[in-house]
């Protein structure tokens, strides 16, 4: 291996208390007294893209739920964006209403949060155009491919104009070409309006390509065992996947992950 694996990693606890949009501080989650996560400290700066990787059960989704305010920690604290509607969430499944067209799927949650109907539809159309579905606003979910349905889900999350976007393995069910296209879309949208993102994935290369920083959670106890800054500009330049700096970064994350895997009995 040529990369600078864990030498380049810095412990999460070493992060300063710099201005951040969201932060977990020594957060612990337990289910029926069994530890599910932590203690985990994770700070996300405005406009920063962070990928969370770790074995199944390491606590990645739990960390996202804490950041989303969907559950509270048993110990430690969670800092979240002050504004209401500042956090968007994209799940692994697009979770679209099958009876509604793409526009309504995006507009209805806005209307339910108090946005007048005409404005909600206008914002839905803008969000759908931003994800490349400007010509599919009247399509029902069954008329859309898996990648298109995920784009609608992304448009729905973006339509609230979040400062923080949480994505829980959003592209896991899609083929690799579609996944790569969606990652490029995320970078393009981020370049137009740099919002913070926390992206959960099992795919080391996807994490290293998308994010400016990759945090590795331990399978044993859901602590962060590595926090690896990713080299290179965002969005990625043409041919970045073949760049030695990218290949080294992938190895650094993979090495952190191999240290974070459960030890076979
Ligand atoms: N509602 C729940 N009740 C009980 N245990 C739970 C609950 N949700 C999660 N857990 C447990 O908490 C731990 C962390 O789960 P979590 O889903 O956050 O892991 P993950 O890293 O996202 O896993 P995966 O990659 O498989 O999605 C696991 O041991 C899981 O079984």
Automatic annotation (TrEMBL):
UniProtKB keywords: ATP-binding, Nucleotide-binding, Transport
Ranges for domain ABC transporter: 22-244
Pfam family, one: ABC_tran
Domain of life according to the entry: Bacteria
InterPro entries referenced in this protein's UniProt entry, alphabetically: AAA+_ATPase, ABC_transporter-like_ATP-bd, ABC_transporter-like_CS, ABC_transporter_ATP-bind, P-loop_NTPase
Claim: Nucleotide-binding is one of the keywords in the record: yes
GO molecular function list: ATP binding; ATP hydrolysis activity
PROSITE patterns with a match to the protein in the record: ABC_TRANSPORTER_1, ABC_TRANSPORTER_2
Protein family according to the UniProt entry: Belongs to the ABC transporter superfamily.
PANTHER family reported in the protein's UniProt record: ALIPHATIC SULFONATES IMPORT ATP-BINDING PROTEIN SSUB, TAURINE IMPORT ATP-BINDING PROTEIN-RELATED
Protein name: ABC transporter ATP-binding protein
Organism expressing this protein natively: Brevundimonas subvibrioides
Lineage: Bacteria, Pseudomonadati, Pseudomonadota, Alphaproteobacteria, Caulobacterales
């Amino acid at each position: 291996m040529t990369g600078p694996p864990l030498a380049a990693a810095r412990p999460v606890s070493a992060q300063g208390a710099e201005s951040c949009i969201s932060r977990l501080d020594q957060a612990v989650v337990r289910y029926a007294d069994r530890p599910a996560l932590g203690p985990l400290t994770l700070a996300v700066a405005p406009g920063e893209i962070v990928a969370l990787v770790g074995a199944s059960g390491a606590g990645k989704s739990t960390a996202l739920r804490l950041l989303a305010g969907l559950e509270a920690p048993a110990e430690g604290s969670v800092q979240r964006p002050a504004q209401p509607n500042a956090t968007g969430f994209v799940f692994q499944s697009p979770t679209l209403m099958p009876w509604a067209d793409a526009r309504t799927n995006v507009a209805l949650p806005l209307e339910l949060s108090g946005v007048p109907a005409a404005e909600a539809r206008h914002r839905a159309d803008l969000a759908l155009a931003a994800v490349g579905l400007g010509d599919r606003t009247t399509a029902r979910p069954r008329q859309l491919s898996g990648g298109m349905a995920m784009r609608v889900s992304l448009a729905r999350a973006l339509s609230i104009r979040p400062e923080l976007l949480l994505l829980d393995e959003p592209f896991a069910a899609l083929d690799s070409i579609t996944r790569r296209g969606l990652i490029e879309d995320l970078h393009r949208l981020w370049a137009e309006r740099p919002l913070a993102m926390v992206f959960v994935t099992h795919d080391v290369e996807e994490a290293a390509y998308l994010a400016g920083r990759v945090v590795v959670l331990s399978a044993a106890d859901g602590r962060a065992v590595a926090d690896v800054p990713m080299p290179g500009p965002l969005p990625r330049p043409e041919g970045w996947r073949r760049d030695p700096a990218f290949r080294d970064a992938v190895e650094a994350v993979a090495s952190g992950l191999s240290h974070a895997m459960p030890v076979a009995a």
